Every structure is written in C-alpha cells, then in structure tokens.
Amino acid sequence: MSELREKIVEKIAGSSKKVILVEGKDDEIACKHLFDKKYHHWERLLLVFTAGGKINVINELKRSPDFIGIIDKDEWSEEDINSIKAEINNLIVIPRYCMESYLVNPDEIWGALPGNIRQNVNYEDFKDAVLENIEDWTKHSALWHAVLPLYSKLKKSGFNQVLLNEIEKIKDESFIKAKLNQWHNILDPENTFQKYRALLSEITGASIEERLHRWIHGKKFWEVHVSGKMVEFFGQKSREKYANEIWKHRLIPEDWEEIWPDLENFQPKLKEN
Fold first, then answer.
1. For helices 239-249 and 227-234, what crossing angle results, to 10°?
2. How far is CA 172 from CA 52, 169, 176, in A?
3. What is this structure's pTM?
4. What is the Cα 125 distance to its own chain's centre?
5. How would you classify the pairing of strands 18-22 and 68-71?
6. Alpha carbons 213 and 68: distance in angstroms, whole number
7. pLDDT per residue over 139-181, tens digit each?
8. Which residues contact 70 (CB under 8 A, 6 or more apart)?
C-alpha cells in the first residue's frame, strides 16, 4: 500500500466514501465549491484528497483503480489525453488548461462577484485592465507549448541522469560527444523557433476566450497578473481569498457538463440539488 493510500484510508476511517484525487489544495477547494453547487450532501459520499501534483495523481490511480482523479489539461493534446485515458480509465482531465483558467476570464469574474463588491467599479475598465497585455501572454503561451515537450524528450534520452549514473561510459569521450550531439539535436533551436511561430499564429487567431481557457498558462496568469488587478479594482485581499470568492459565487462552468457523468458513474448515489 502506498503512503498516499495509507493516508486516505486513515482519513475515511472505514466509511464507504469514494475517493477523488486532485493535484493541489487549490484544486481541492475549487472542486468542493463546484460539488456544493451541483450535488446534495455530496460530502457524505465523496472525499476530495490532494495528492501533491499531477504525476502523483496518475501514479496512484494506476495502483488504486477504486479511486478517481481530476487533473489539469495543461499542454496535453487530445491525442495525449486519449492515450493516457486508454491506460487509466479512472482519470478525468478538465477541459481548460488548468483549474486557475476558471479564474482569469473577466466576464466570468465579473459575473461571480457580489454586487456590493463591484458596485463602484466600471466593468469595461476592469475588463480592459485584465486583458491589457493579452498579446504578451499569448506569446508566452506559444513559447511554453513549443518548449515544454523538449524537456520530456531530453529526459527520455537520459538527460541528465546519464552523467550521474554512467560512470564507466563517460570515460569515453566519443560517448560524451555522441550524447551531447543527441541532446543538441533534440533542442534544435531553429525547428523549435519555427514551432513557436506556428503556434503563435494559431493562438493569435483564436478568440480571447479560447486563449484564456485553452492556451494561456492560467495559474501563472492568475498569480502574476489577474489577482493583482483584483486588488487594484476591488480592494486588498489575498490571492487565495479572491480565488475562494470567485469559486464560491460563480456559476457552474458549462464545460463541466462533460465531467459530471463520469463522477455520477463513479458514485451513483450522487443526487443533484
């Protein structure tokens, strides 16, 4: 039994609750707010538990088919998602880039804030401020999607463990040169730059909403930019408090309609409010 499963077993203490694993504490808070809106007394039937990262969720689901996991889409393509779900059928991948992507759309934020908070703020001013540097964040997203796969390819080729573990081989300079050339070919700056330009063209052609939901690094955009605009327009509160405020009051996202059936199959006793 894994250490994570031991903690969960101790937490549920012999109850019949079904276990949902999420990546982090922020994801746990978000899911709990959404479940509150959707299901009657769901907490009697489900335990939402933080696994401490995407890879921890995936690894535990492989060991624990009686659990279900909810993870960020991140940079995964539909092909990537279908491939991992073919291997792990108790996995749910949210439709947006990450959970924080539900906190960065100014239209959705505005609709989630109570009237007394937004009464002295002009909506158009707030929206313009949130989107003021959207083109810079579009470039950031294109570069991130172009560069990030290189890390996986490098790791698969032995970077950087070969330097640590292949003590005998690195005595041979021809091996060192071949390995360095292999890593250089993977990085291939010109090809990576062209991929970045192609992605930038694709993302720039998408609507602002699609950029915010699918492409832009929602967690970074929320932490670095949007949460600061919340303070600027609505007053001093922590980033965590504003996130909680939005989740508490926002409508259930329409794109979660594809998620609810999987949860209800997992726990058939769930009843809608």
1. 80
2. 40, 6, 7
3. 0.91
4. 28
5. parallel
6. 24
7. 999 999 999 989 888 888 888 777 767 777 777 888 888 888 8
8. 20, 21, 22, 27, 31, 57, 92, 94, 259
Query: What does the pLDDT read at residue 257?
Result: 96
Both tokens of 148, joined, read: 């990030």
At 202-238, the pLDDT tens digits run 999 999 999 999 999 999 999 999 999 999 999 999 9
Positions in the chain whose pLDDT score sits under 70: 164
Domains of the chain: 3-98+252-266 (3.40.50), 106-249 (no CATH)
Predicted confidence at residue 211, as pLDDT, reads: 98
φ, ψ for residue 30, nearest 5 deg: -60, -50
pLDDT at 158: 83
219: Cβ–Cβ under 8 A, 6 or more apart, which residues?
98, 99, 100
